[in-house]
Every structure is written in C-alpha cells, then in structure tokens.
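Q: Joint fold for the lines below.
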Amino acid sequence: MSGQNRLPSASWSQRVIRNLLYGQNVDRAAKARVRVGFVIILFGLIYAVIATRLVMFATFPDDRGGHRAASQDAIATARPDIIDRNGQALATDIKAPSLFGEPRRIIDRDEAVELLTATLPDLETAEVRQRLGTRKGFVWLKREITPAQQKDIHGLGIPGIGFLRENKRVYPSGREVAHLIGLVNIDNQGIAGMEKWLDSNGLADLHRAGFATDRLQQPVELSIDLRVEHALRDELMNAKEHYQAKAASGIVSNVRTGEIVAMVSLPDFDPNNPKEAHDPDRINRLTTGVYEMGSTFKAFTLAMALDSGKYDLNSMWDARAPLHFGRFAIHDDHRLGRFINMKEVFTYSSNIGAARIALAQGVEAHKAFLRKMGQMDRLRTELPESASPILPRKWGELNTVTIAFGHGMAVAPLQAVMGIDALVNGGWLIPPTFLKRTEEEARAVAKRVIKQETSDKMRFLLRLNAEIGTARKADVKGYYVGGKTGTAEKVINGRYAKKRVLNAFTAILPADNPQYQLLVMLDEPQPLKETHGFITSGWNAVPTGGKVIARIAPILGVQPRFDLPPSERLILAASRATQ
Amino acid sequence: MISREQRTPLSEWWWTVDRLLLAGMVLLMLTGVVLSLAASPSVATRIGLDPFHFFHRHVLFLLPSIVVMVGVSFLSPRQIRRSALIVFALSVVLIVATLGFGPEVKGAKRWITILGVNIQASESAKPAFVVLAAWLFSESARKPEMPATSMALTLLLGLVTLLVMEPDFGQTMLILMVWGALFFIAGMRIVWVFGLAGAAIAGLFAAYMMVPHVALRIRRFMDPASGDTFQVDTAMDAFANGGWFGLGPGEGIAKRSLPDSHTDFVFAVGAEEFGIIMCLGLLALFTFIVMRTLSRAYASEDLFSRFAASGLAIMFGVQAAINMAVNLHLIPAKGMTLPFISYGGSSMISLAYGVGLMLALTRERPRTEMESINATAAASYA
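A: Joint structure:
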C-alpha cells in the first residue's frame, strides 16, 4: 500500500521524512503485523519474569522470614542447681518473663516506644526505638522483668510486643562463692567458673539436643562447704581492711582428697551482677594469678633433701656468712652466723640454708623434684580459669639458689597448695578438685611423690615452726597447727621492692594427722603499730590464719585436743617407731 | 433477544464481541472487589474513615464502570475516534483546570473536584490519547500527504507537557512508552528504535539528574541501605509470609503498615492473604487480557483497529507489569496502580472506557463492513 504512486502530489519534504522514519517502499500493514507479534513476545517475556519472581518468593520464603525460628534458640536455657557439700544452694534457676518485640508486627513504633519507656523507665528510649526500627522478626527489649512489670505491659495492649518465660540464674550466696561458681550470660550460658565447666561438660550438648529441661537435671554437688567459705571470707575481709592490703585470698583444702573446701579471693564480685566480674582487679588470684610464694617454697627444698635420703633433720648447713653467688649475695633476715641444722633452716627460715640445700642437690634434681610436685606445669582443674607457672627461661645454679627460698619462679597458689598437701598427707600428689570426692576416689588419682617418712618429717617441721618458729601466732590451742610463712618481695619495675610484699601462710591441722590445709595470702599489707612496723608474714598473714583456723576447725569437725606433747615427742617419735 | 435470527444491535454485539475477553475483564473487576475487601479497611481505619469506606466506593464505581465498558464496546471504529476526540478534549480542559485550581497534594496537582467527585483527568486522557495516536499513525500509513506523524508527535508533546507540569512522571513515562510502542508498530525503522531507546535512556538520566525524588528512588533500588525502603521491604515480607497458599482472608499484617496497601501495594497485600497461587492467577488473567487483545489486533485487517487495540493493550499491560514489578522489587518504586484491582475511584471509569475500547476494537467485523468504514472514514477525514 504505497501512497507515493497514488498520490504523487505529496510534498517532497514529507516524502523525505516518511522515508527517513519508515523506510522506502515498505508494506506498512505487513510490517505492523510482524511488530504486533513482536510486542506479544515481549509481553510474554515480561510476564514470565514476574511469574518467576512470584514462584521464587513462594519456594524460598525463608530468605526473609526465618528470623523467628533462630531467635528462639537464644532463650535462656535451664541449668542444674549447684549445691555445696551439705546441700546448700549456691546457684539455682528461677523463672522470669522477658520482653521481646516483633518489629514487623508493630504498627505504631513511636507509640510503642513511648508506652514501653513510660512503663519501664530504665529502658533506653533511643535503643528501644532503634531495635524496633529494624526489619527483624524478633528483638529482645528487656530480659528478665518482674511479674508486675509484665502485667503492666500486657495491659498496654501494644501489638507486636510479647513475653517469653526464661530461666534466670540466681546465686543466693552472692559474693561468697563468686570465683568458684563463676557466672552466666544473659542467655544462661556459663561464661566463667563452675558454670562454664558445666557447659563444657555436656550441658551445652544436652541443650542443643533439647533434653535439658528443669526436671531432668541432677544438682551438681561441689566440694565447697558454704559455712567454711563464709568464715574464711569474713576473716579475710577483716584482715584486708585491718592490714590495708590490696588483696586477700585463701584456700581451705582437704589434704587427703584434694577437695577444695573453701576458696576466697578478695576483691570479688557478685555473680548476680555480672558487670563487676570483668574488672581485672577482681580476678581469681588463686588460680588465675601466679606469684612467687616466698619462704613457703622452702618446704619443697627441705622435702627434696630429706627425700633424697642423703640428709636427715640433723644435717648441718653453713650459715656463717652471706652466700655470695656471682654479684649476688644471699642474706638471712635473722642473721645466725653459724652452722645450722635442717630444723633451724626451717624455723629461722634461713635463705642461706635453703640455698645450700638446693645447691647440694643440683639443678637437675631440683627441677625434677619441682616437676614431680606439679609446680612446673599449668594446673588444670574444673575451673576454666588457670595460669601457667612462670619459670626462668634458663635455669642455672643462681635460679636454683633463689627458687630454693621461693623467688624467681611464680606459681598459682592453688598449685602450691596441691604440693604442700602432698608433703603432709603421706606423700601423695592429688589433683585438686571442686567437686565432691571420697578418699577412695582420691587414692585412685593420687600419685606417690615422696616417701612416707619424708612426709612425717615435713609434718614435724611444720608443727615445730608453729611451736618455736615464725608461725607461732597461728598456734590455736587444741588443733595442733603446723605452718610455714612466706614473705615475697614484689618485683616492681624489674627490682625487688622491700616495702611491697606478698605474704603467704600455709597451715596444716592437725599436724600429727593432717586433715586440712589452709593457705592465706595478703597482698601488700601495710605496717601497723601493733606489728611494730613489720610487714613480714608472721605479723599479719599468720595471725589471720590463726583466726581462720579458730573459726573453721569446729565447723570442719576437727576434734580439739589439749594434752598433746610437743612435736619432738609426738610426731618424730611416732615416725621413728614406724620405721 | 440475542438470537442469530434477528439482527438487533444487541445480538450483533453479542455475536461479534470477544466474549472470553469480556469475561476476563469482568473476572478482573470481581477480583478487584475481593482484594479491596482485604486491603482497604485497614487503610480506612487508619485515616479515620468508616472501615468499608473504600470498599463501598470501589463497588459504587464498579457499576457505572461496567456500564461504560459495555456501552463503549458497542461503538464502531468511527464512533470510537469521535468519542476519543471528545474525551481527550475534555480531559485536556480538565487537566488545565487542575493546574489552575486543583489542590496541591504531596507537591503535585493531579486532582480536581467536580460535583463532589475527585477526578484525575490524566487518567481519562490516556486511553483517548492512545486512540488518537493510533489513528494518526494509521493515517500516516494510509495517507502519505497528511503530516500524521508530526501530528502524533505534537499530540504527544502537548500531553506530556501538561503531565510534567502537574507533575506526574509515572503517567508521563507510560504515555511515552505507549506512544513509542505505537510508533514501533506503525513501522518505524529499526535505527529509530535504537534512537528512541537512546532518547529514553537520556530522558531517564536527565530525570535522575534533575528530579531529586527520581534519583532517590533509583538509588534506593540499587542500594537498599541508602534510604528508607520500608514499603518495598514490607511488601517483600508480605510475599514471603503468604507463601503458596496465603495466610487466609483477614490474616495479613502487611496491610496494617503499608500506607498504600489499597492502591499501589494491593498485589502484595493480596499475596499475603490469598497466596502466590492467587497472584499467579491474577497475573495469568492480565496476561490473557493483554495477549488476547494483541492477538486479535494481530489478526485485524483494519490498521486503525490494529494500532488502537495494540496501543490500549500495551498501556494496560505495561501499567499492570510496572505495578507488579514494583511490588516484587524488580524495578524501582513507581506509583502505578494495578488496573481494576487497586482502589481508584473515578479512575476506574477511565479504565473501563479503555477496556471498553479494547472490546470494541477487537470485535469481529466482516471485511465489507471494514472497507465501508474505511471508505467513509477516508471520505470524512480527507
């Protein structure tokens, strides 16, 4: 249908435009038909894309809608109760409602924020607004609210706001057992202490499998005695205040089973208020801290010499003059200026004597003995918090000299307690535990490290020290206490500072047949008038230890006996009789 | 009454009109009623109206719409052209009046109130414009001495100018696309296809640079994090929530928070309550209407009918496609209603006029009649 032939009158310019626009001599009708067909195909494609998109939405809705299912996992889990050795609750679960929002269901966000913050004044307005402003299916608004608050919010009738009953962990004894028990996070997952141990020992798996309901879980029984714990903590708090110490800590350990009956590290925290727990000053100094234990370590040095069989209690050591070693000189606090025997080395706490004893054994024997006593390796217990001992990088004779009297090697106090237990319980090294353990179970994991008679001699030395030596102030009548003091000068900027000391006192009771060991540590006690300006252990840690023993011995069921002869006649004689 | 024995206008209409297409349109309108019932009460409640305010008005406008659709489908091609000319002239007058007296809503003047009815004159201008443009293009093919293409261009520029002044970029885009499609069908050389595509891209780019809210919408589409994508996100959640079978009538939650749940996002609201299956059905219905009209246009002997039917179908189909694609986050957000499904009040009558024209143009006519029509048309417009 070409118009040009029929109507040649059309102007020249119009013809040019036509040809430019539509082309020359084309059948426009046929062309139009083809192009309509083309449009049909195009529409088919466009609608196919839309249909595909629809089908994709229907097939994979989880791309966007799966928030709710995942968030349900976060609901605080149920945990078993934790009780002390007498059945007192240390940690338990209570039910508490938690407030959540479903932002996608909220119609008027401003209204919701306003009403909620008016009802719960401690909610952050900006935070709530931001949380509800997300496109998530589920957000927590406030965990663990009170039933009264729940009722009030329920009464507001805000759509898209709801409650879930959660388990909230509470610690009825609060700070008393802080470091032991540890704490949980807001989702009731253990993050420290025994709580974390619970999670890493199957509880978390149990939860994942969905079996950890409240009723199925047996309470976990600890070795702790809450009464002893309280007495120890009370006395340590008094001592910390009295001697203006930076920190105070203590352990009561059962020497026959390795159970930890009480453990306190001050300053501590309230596990019900987890914010405090992250303060680095509140670490557990007994397991996480490592310290030079000072003269307490002499017990290991003497035990090593006695156990070697080459020396006995009457072996003499030259303490006439300071021991010069390279450019160092080892002095005694109490200058003796003569030969002294083993007993005197211990009761006078002679550095020179201890150094000579260790040197006489040799560096390798010294190292081997300390390793055998568990002082060289990281001690791992149920508590997840632990620290490796700090050892000299190159252990030469000088190191042996200083380590002989407890300097130049830092161990976790709990580690030292384990070693001393072995020295007095007949020579068995028993890994400490925070769970209840019988003597039979303890024997199964115990390892003999020294001879029985060496252990007897060590008990005699400890008792002797309480009768005539540095531990006299802790000799609570009737309990036949034995003990060893330690005063470690602290290293400040690479030098030993005379005025800043870490004092330790290790006591055993009763010394003739030990049942318990007590370790008391005071960090930087200050000189007082009553201590005549002294800051050594005998003036602060030892009296504190005495007070603790006077309070805990009756609780622990240690029978007082008032007619016992001195250690020379009781322990040594008995020991000789058995040989 | 509609027997073949007696040739009455009604029986003639019944036997020549595309009854399947008619059925499809009635079905579409009924679906619109159902979805209006789902989507509009929450909006009405939100703005403080009677919950069924929009629903009642939807139904109220549906009845005259059906009358208009059926009535228009009786028209012959020449009557169609005349009606289009009248409607277009009226619409242009109304648009000018809107620009002069209409209230400014959200920065645009699109509505004018006449006798208590809000009228969006650009809606009624659209189908009339398509018919006039199609006529001009068909004339350009038939009568070379007539500067029909230039006239079509003038027509386009005139309407576009008015729409941009409102401003109404959505309608402008739609008009441009349909005009371009008509030009394409009318036999434009392929070079010009690329030329027009280039012009379209340049125009989009210009809009991106000059008009802030266009730029914002495109940027949001490209990078959802750059701004508030609340509507689109809620719409997508609605599709995901609904799944294959939907949550059930009244169970949807997206409609409570989507501001335009009864207009631009009715597709998503419907998906949440009635499921993707319903959406696919609705899509199939649109596809059927568009394809059916286009294939009838393809088969049509008359150039004007072919162009006009194609143009109307394209406009109808593109509008539906844009709305669904926006709902599904396939293209940037653009305010475009879903024909007969979205609530539109008076605009439904314009739509009815448009589909009535589609029905009229796709009626089966004997070739002789066609030729006589063409002859008279040629005589009358020469």
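Q: Anything notable?
A: The mean pLDDT of chain B is 84. The longest strand of chain B covers residues 112-114.
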